[in-house]
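So, can you check this one?
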Amino acid sequence: MESVGMYGLCGCAAKSKMKCDSRWEIPASETAPTSAYSSPARSLGDTGITPLSPSHIVNDADPNVSEQQMFLVVVAIDFGTTSSGYAYSFTKEPECIHVMRRWEGGDPGVSNQKTPTTILLTPERKFHSFGYAARDFYHDLDPNEAKQWLYLEKFKMKLHTTGDLTMDTDLTAANGKKIKALEIFAYALQYFKEQALKELSDQAGSEFENSDVRWVITVPAIWKQPAKQFMRQAAYQAGLASPETAEQLIIALEPEAASIYCRKLRLHQMIELSSKAAVNGYSSGDTVGAGFAQAKEHIRRNRQSRTFLVENVIGEIWSELEEGDKYVVVDSGGGTVDLTVHQIRLPEGHLKELYKATGGPYGSLGVDYEFEKLLCKIFGEDFIEQFKIKRPAAWVDLMIAFESRKRAAAPDRTNPLNITLPFSFIDYYKKFRGHSVEHALRKSNVDFVKWSSQGMLRMSPDAMNALFKPTIDSIIEHLRDLFQKPEVSTVKFLFLVGGFAEAPLLQQAVQAAFGDTCRIIIPQDVGLTILKGAVLFGLDPAVIKVRRSPLTYGVGVLNRYVEGKHPPEKLLVKDGTRWCTDVFDKFISADQSVALGELVKRSYTPAKPSQLVIVINIYSCEHDEVSFITDPGVKKCGTLRLDLTGTSSTAVPARREIQTLMQFGDTEIKATAVDIATSKSVKVGIDFLNY
């Protein structure tokens, strides 16, 4: 975070390596290369803030963190890359978690307890439908008419892959038209809000108000701060909460939510893959597939019942854990795979994040990309690109057909998998190339994909398995790297969760690689694990006690210039005093443990005693070794502007103390500046999108 501005503060360095900074009016959007620009203090004639001597460095938890408004219900939204859903629990019956009503539509071979993350806007760019309804309506449109409608799917990945995410970031619809990402995310969240409130009202028999609901939205732990903030902004735009009622919305990290649910698991609610023990009557000699078949049968039987009882006990697996025991949660979804290492803290069983969340874009979408590459190899990249633009609805159809076959892939499968090609694919290919699809397959030399006379692509099981291989290899490699870390040695359990964890090929690969290292556990309703955990998190947010800070935060200050220690270009002489400008005064380091609600305080004083407007700029950086706010990778992410004009000067001491506090621990970070003499204060949320 940053501190300084129009009239800065000065302070004595609590740590000798702190250099000073007097950052006032710097374009906040840029990451400054070393000494790319001179300190604004020189050109504007402003002083800065400087640390007070001795500087107070206090770390304590805010006592108000646990005081929370009473909500009647917690609704969690699992906004996934490929599928989404919501679940809820009434605060008076926290042991009952209700998964949303059955969705209309659905696909053969695909469970429909969630709905596809697809959205359709009219040609006038107004919201039309979401999920199966959007997909089916779009599919039924006349091809020429479909080109006018805006259809989007798998758009959540844009938040992970965009390096310079802002409120103005665009998404591209299937017809190639651009639309603001914030608008799409807000439409989707508003849809879930309306569905949930309607279901709650129907169940209660009276109108349910939004103010009665605490909302929880899940995001990948590996998302950078701007993406997490973006999700909160979209939720505000959708009316789930507002900046004034920020505590009504919790942004939960997906593997944390999964972890919270896993601690409640009873033996009959999981399948153990590892060779270390037999669970549910299956010994290690049984195949992964057998255990999973049992789970699928369990899900099928329970499909009609949408209420899950979460017993208010610690599950048997969890009760084996002792103080300090470690476990890994592998959250494998559609877009990303998140790896989080937690440690158990007794007696309450609170969770401590032991190692900064890692992972990457290794979700099940990777398998879809491999299939698309295979189609390009057979039919030509030029044709596939044209087909997607000219027949967008038929392309969606083809990917739906692939999705259900993808779910049928298994290590021990021997019979081929048939993928139906839409008629318009066959027809358009003939017009485009002048010969048939069958001819293309014969000519392509891809011998593991054949043409069937029923109009299908016939893939051998090996061919399908090959599509999974790059993605699964990336996951295993990432896990191997993680297991090399000293913090991750002696891990007892690996919990495999998320939609992609249903894939027997992934289960087998994880089992083969790590079955001898730790016990591998899969919750039976693995696709709903995060959703249910997010509800439990909303009911008791204090269950996560310690997180790792993803970034280094600090403020810009002036320090007394020390010859030989500070670079000459940072020297600033004001009223006979020699200052070093642009010092990054660190509040917290990247990967440092941060307790929930932890407050870090620093005291500063204006370098110029008569200064009445104090501007403190907050900066962040992904790495820990940072001395100046002009160092590479340092970005501005907040400004505290404390206006002290009009305050009585008689009671103000010669060295005015400005206390700056940062509160960490939640996925959001808040900063406050207080003038100790007058108690005047100003607050700001750290902002990664607007600088």
The first strand starts at residue 8 and ends at 10.
